[in-house]
Amino acid sequence: MSHGYFALVLHAHLPYVRHPERDDVLEERWLYEAVTECYIPLLQVFQGLQRDGVDFRLALSISPPLAAMLADPLLQKRTAAHLEQLVELGEREVERTVGDASFHPLARMYRDRFQGARDFYQEVQGDLLQEFCRLEAAGRLELFTAVGTHPFLPYLLREETMRAHIQAAVASHERLLGRRPRGIWLPECGFVPGVDRLLREADIQWFCVDSHAVAAAAPPSRLGTTSPILTSAGVAAFARDPQSSEQVWSSRTGYPGDYDYREYYRDIGYDLDWETIGSYVHPEGIRLHTGFKYYRITGYGAHKEPYNPEWAREKAAGHARHFLAERQAQVRAERQKHGRHPVITAPFDAELFGHWWFEGPLFLDMLFRQMHFDQADVKSITPTQYLERYTDYPVCEMEMSSWGRHGYGDVWLQGKNEWIYPVIQKAEEQFNHLVHRIEPVSSQMQRAMAQAGRELMLAQSSDWAFIMDSQTMVEYAIKRTKQHIARFDRLAAMIEADAVDEEWLAQVEELDGLFPDLNPAWFRSPWRQKPIVKGKRPSVLMLTWEYPPMTVGGLSRHVYDLSRYLVQQGWEVHVVTTEVQGYPHTETVEGVHIHRAHVMKPFGNQFYHWVFQLNRMLLDTCRSLMAAGHCFDVVHAHDWLVSAAAQGLKEAFHLPLVATIHATEHGRNQGIHTELQQRIHRLEWELTYEAARVIVCSRHMEREVQDVFQLPTDKMRVIPNGVDPALLQPPSLNEGGPEPFARSGERIILFVGRLVREKGVSTLLEAAVEVVKVHPDTKWIIVGKGPMKEVWEAEAQRLGLAEKILFTGFISDADRNRLLQLAEIAVFPSWYEPFGIVALEAMAAGTSVVVSDTGGLADVVDHDKNGLKAYPGDATSLLRQIRTLLEDGGKSRRLAEAAREHIYRFDWKRIADQTTAVYQEMIAPEAIDVREEVAAHHESR
């Protein structure tokens, strides 16, 4: 009696490598080798099982690029020629090895094997797809498709593009294999929230994910990973079983690494002299794999012994028995645990079986035969068949995941391939713009629009980024990416100009003819089909990477105060930011609608990976708001970390973009010195270039931004930071003493800020050494966190200031405000400071301030009138100003009182008025507004 099920899922895919312009393109051999070493051997195994009455089931995805190549007459002809050449080489090898007891039997084996493959290919007239379809009709296979050109979905910028890849895949499968697929392969098992809804639109029932996607789903599945889960869209996700995957997939700890199996990397294409092998490798003198491999793995070293097919066959039989026993133990345990038949899902690249693991097809043959004839208590099944068994699958939500290195996306985004995404995403946005703005009327324009879509989709194939990561055929991957983007750019220019070069278009259609039935409408947003009318209440969408309670620097406080005062001005304000553990993903605070997006930890331990993922999730959140009926008049982006999301919203919804630049990478580092700094600098420039208005907080920042980014003056607006009027009150010392920060009677000298190099705390420590000698009753309190905290703590220890200086780390706003009131002096010795909002807050609290004469601090403080200034980085100058205030109480009080009067010009109400004026510059009465359109779409759903 069966206790459970085993679902073998094979994914057959190759990138689109059709080159009609020449017949010796090296990469086309990927197809010939896969047909010869994998697809034909698998078909022979499956047909043999069927012929012998073995009851077996498995699922096989055939990706659209592979299906198109297998059905292509030109490639069928070239594959047949390749098989004839292998048969000829086999005859020659049989002759060459006569008398060699080790290699002659192997030469005969290969000759017979390739003759059999050639004869099989001739018998089916090169139509392998039809043979797979016959097995499906017999109930042995479930054929399903893969997404589009095999893009890594989490790195596509637009939902519309995902939809187009899915629709293209379904249409291709139906055209080439005769029926609509029920399952789909997400390339690299790359899942991203929201794609399940698009799959449901296409009537897809199931897909596969890696095990950690289901293991970390919320709420946790009560059935673990041995049952599919349903997403909220009602699509089933089957989790890859880690145990069976490790046993088959790993070349080190799995079966394929057994020493008696054939060694893949030793081939006569490299071993034999050129005179012998030259006619059977590349005509340009490039050595390559022929498929004739005479050695077994032997061990980890370079020494290899001759291959023995009988030994390998015995190992395959033993491994099949072991694999089946392991699966039987699994299903028994899971059946006992959950009281229902579990399913062990084992997805693999089909090319593993036969190409990489020579004995792989033999292993599958023996596995299914043992499962059938031994009447094992685990049965094979397809995912669709398993879904029919039960109706109460757990409903869970999953986060972004893949089966790649580290489980997320660093294979397809790292230093070797990251350059492709700005280029591809720019084309993605441009095509979205074209399909919404231009309705082709002529057949030539329709063809050009469809071909532009093909070129975009081909450039988005995950294969190119993967090849760049693995460092195999890198030059080809780079060439293909650039070719498709160049063709897309030329087509887009033709479409814009309504001038199609029909002769060139026909040439490109012949080169890149994938998806002949591609419909550009697949790329359109479903809610952007008709003109829209402006609504009544103004609304702004703010993007920021930090927002309370996440407070890293002054940006968080700035956006918090600005957003709530805009609400008081009558604006509807939505802030989209990063999630904070323990806080809701959506809430309304003081009238501000806050949306916190879940962002994965940096994969690959690269900060710019995290920024990429941040923008992806911010954009997804904003699109969800649009789809739910929210609508906006303007997008306001705060700093470079949200640049890509802001630009995406501008392009997608034709919204005016306002950017506030709070600081520049050039200013923070006194120049651009490293590759990372160059990347950040580029993103800052792109944000200021795309923004219709750029807000800065001081005249100093205006000059800096103009110089660094070469912005026109009329594009910029200077609006200072502000202070909360709640701080405009006399010190409330009766509300609490200085404990635990200082003892009663100690004179507090306070610094508040992020502990980074440019804040100048090293200068403050140097001055403190001399001040303490004269004023030992001073207590120096350093409030804030940052990468320099431990460095400066060690420096204070070295200077003998351990008892006089307290590094508090992060403290609450209430404690910070209390310290601002308790302090005798607040010191801000920054080397670089765009504004310095905390200096204003100290002035509002009635505390005397000493600041560096730099940046925005120089605009805030008028020396000897409302505070004192010191030369940046000059400890002696800083020491002099601090001692002046400590030793002249009357002057200190006069400056503090003048400062309290001065800060009224930095009232947030005034700043909100100025910001509103900037928004209104962007919102003309006739401006396109997505609100009515999105609302109508929402009502129709």
Automatic annotation (TrEMBL):
GO terms for molecular function: 1,4-alpha-glucan branching enzyme activity. Substrate binds at R240, G257, W403, D463. One of its GO terms (cellular component) is extracellular region. Residues 7-393 form the Glycoside hydrolase family 57 N-terminal domain. Residues 743-901 form the Glycosyl transferase family domain. Keywords: Carbohydrate metabolism. InterPro entries: 57_glycoside_trans_central, BE_C, Branching_enz_MT3115-like, Glyco_hydro/deAcase_b/a-brl, Glyco_hydro_38_N_sf, Glyco_hydro_57/38_cen_sf, Glyco_hydro_57_N, Glyco_trans_1. It holds the Pfam family Glyco_hydro_57. Residues 552-726 form the Glycosyltransferase subfamily 4-like N-terminal domain. SUPFAM superfamilies: Families 57/38 glycoside transferase middle domain, Glycoside hydrolase/deacetylase, UDP-Glycosyltransferase/glycogen phosphorylase. The keyword Repeat does not apply. Residues 424-523 form the 1,4-alpha-glucan branching enzyme C-terminal domain. The active site is at E188 (nucleophile), D349 (proton donor). One of its GO terms (biological process) is alpha-glucan biosynthetic process. The keyword Protein biosynthesis does not apply. It comes from the Bacteria. Belongs to the glycosyl hydrolase 57 family. This is 1,4-alpha-glucan branching enzyme. It comes from Desmospora activa DSM 45169.
